[in-house]
């Protein structure tokens, strides 16, 4: 953490003075020349302090980018120092990995690509059987143009395949050189411990943000005791914590999964806006308005634990720069506690998933 503190001291002279919103701003051009991306560790795997989720470039969001547009996004992400990218076989299915393989091909020797298994050929079915894991591994290697998968997660727990069996298969794939690191997603603490005994887990990926802090109870203490890193997906609650979504926001029902999420009904979007109002009051009183709601949400996670990597996604260059600029400041322990205290008073409308999905994540 000493290096990070020094970085923050040095970079404080730059970041907050620059626009978080427009890459055409000449001040931002100067900022990118002086900025150095800090690193964090997932177990023994060192990655950029922020990860980039590729899913939304062509799957589950209202905007589907062309390959050329997606290339510009990842080019800028790499330029800004992000070296940790995330995809999954089920996104599409397959199409997100195919896109990732194309747009990240020229960077593959200097980045870390994480992907996931855990669904059958019918993506409504969970399948982590040994046969399916090996099959997905081979296919993912081809789609991603890789010789080995840097980080291979189980996407969702399969009730028909014990986690010990899953861990054994991954251990074999690691011995074969096809996988470098094992990860799991949305797994309970006891299952994490059981899997880790058989094949060391590098990272756990689960949802974590200002509107969903359940992992603080059992997951984070477990990871800390086992030296496992944590990747926080949806750190902005699928864009909501940016403050840019409201009851009038329209989502494309043909491709955007937010249309079926209880927290994204018009009623919930309106009722939960108290969260955004509270964050805005916090930024005025504690930060003199020198950070956006999105930056505060990301800075909050970075301040919680040194082994947490927020994994954000975006289809807009200006949002990419805004999110990365978060790393030019930090929240103090007192500020984190103040923010939590303010938000804990607010009752949130809607569960994070519909019941069918809630059952899959056990929450």
Automatic annotation (TrEMBL):
<dbReference type="GO" id="GO:0016491">
    <property type="term" value="F:oxidoreductase activity"/>
</dbReference>
<dbReference type="InterPro" id="IPR006311">
    <property type="entry name" value="TAT_signal"/>
</dbReference>
<protein>
    <submittedName>
        <fullName>Aldo/keto reductase</fullName>
    </submittedName>
</protein>
<dbReference type="InterPro" id="IPR036812">
    <property type="entry name" value="NAD(P)_OxRdtase_dom_sf"/>
</dbReference>
<feature type="domain" description="NADP-dependent oxidoreductase">
    <location>
        <begin position="50"/>
        <end position="341"/>
    </location>
</feature>
<keyword id="KW-0560">Oxidoreductase</keyword>
<dbReference type="Pfam" id="PF00248">
    <property type="entry name" value="Aldo_ket_red"/>
</dbReference>
<dbReference type="GO" id="GO:0005737">
    <property type="term" value="C:cytoplasm"/>
</dbReference>
<dbReference type="InterPro" id="IPR023210">
    <property type="entry name" value="NADP_OxRdtase_dom"/>
</dbReference>
<dbReference type="InterPro" id="IPR050791">
    <property type="entry name" value="Aldo-Keto_reductase"/>
</dbReference>
């Amino acid at each position: 953490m000493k290096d990070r503190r020094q970085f923050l001291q040095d970079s404080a002279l730059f970041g907050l003075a620059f626009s978080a919103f427009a890459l055409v701003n000449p001040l931002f051009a100067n900022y990118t020349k002086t900025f150095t991306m800090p690193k964090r560790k997932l177990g023994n795997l060192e990655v950029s302090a922020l990860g980039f989720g590729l899913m939304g470039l062509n799957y589950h969001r209202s905007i589907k980018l062309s390959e050329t547009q997606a290339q510009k996004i990842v080019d800028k992400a790499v330029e800004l120092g992000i070296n940790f990218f995330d995809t999954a076989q089920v996104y599409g299915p397959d199409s997100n990995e195919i896109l990732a393989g194309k747009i990240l091909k020229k960077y593959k020797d200097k980045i870390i690509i994480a992907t996931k298994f855990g669904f059958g050929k019918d993506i409504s079915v969970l399948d982590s059987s040994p046969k399916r894991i090996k099959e997905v591994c081979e296919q993912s290697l081809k789609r991603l143009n890789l010789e080995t998968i840097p980080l291979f997660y189980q996407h969702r727990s399969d009730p028909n395949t014990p986690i010990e069996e899953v861990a054994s298969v991954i251990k074999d794939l690691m011995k074969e050189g096809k996988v470098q690191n094992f990860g799991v997603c949305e797994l309970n603490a006891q299952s994490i411990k059981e899997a880790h005994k058989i094949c060391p887990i590098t990272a756990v990926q689960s949802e974590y943000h200002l509107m969903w802090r359940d992992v603080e109870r059992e997951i984070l203490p477990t990871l800390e005791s086992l030296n496992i890193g944590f990747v926080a997906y949806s750190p902005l609650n699928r864009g909501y914590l940016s403050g840019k979504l409201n009851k009038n926001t329209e989502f494309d029902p043909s491709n955007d999964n937010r249309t079926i999420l209880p927290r994204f009904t018009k009623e919930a979007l309106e009722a939960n806006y108290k969260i955004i109002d509270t964050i805005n009051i916090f930024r005025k009183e504690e930060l003199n308005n020198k950070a956006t709601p999105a930056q505060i949400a990301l800075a909050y996670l970075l301040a919680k634990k040194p082994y947490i990597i927020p994994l954000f996604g975006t289809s807009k260059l200006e949002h990419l720069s805004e999110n990365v600029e978060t790393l030019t400041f930090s929240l103090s322990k007192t500020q984190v506690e103040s923010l939590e205290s303010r938000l804990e008073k607010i009752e949130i409308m809607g569960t994070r998933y519909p019941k069918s999905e809630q059952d899959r994540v056990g929450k």
